[in-house]
Amino acid sequence: MAKPTILINLNRCTGCWTCSMACKVAYKLPEDKWWQYVRTIGSRAGIDEPAGEWPNVRMSWMPVYTSDCILCGKRTKEGLEPFCTYNCPTKAMTYGDLDDPKSDVSMSMKKLREKSYRIFQLPVWEGTRPEIYYSEK
Predict the structure, then answer these.
(1) Domain encompassing residue 106
(2) How many domains does the structure of the chain reveal?
(3) Is the pLDDT at 15 greater than 90, yes or no?
(4) What is the rounded CA–CA span in Å between residue 130 and residue 3?
């Protein structure tokens, strides 16, 4: 695979942490170690605190991949999806080769762009994986 990539549709993410737990369990990570976690967007107080003031509150989430993430290298070399994308219950995550225009991730990006979704990456200074892309409307 030339450019393994994960695309996360933030409009589909429900903040359930299934992706994070799949990674943690699969790699037997210690309790205080996360290779991937879910950030609550807009919260000032932490996990699952809504942004805004009552009655205009809102919540959204963003799975964040730390530089420790290995993108399930052994698993993907066998042709399988990473644990996070495989276990996502809302199918908010798509995995594939970004250099292959017929891969799931390339086709998903194309469809989302046609629907005017914004596709972006987190800035380098956040220390995250460069193979992770996000989309939102």
Answers:
(1) 4-136
(2) 1
(3) yes
(4) 10
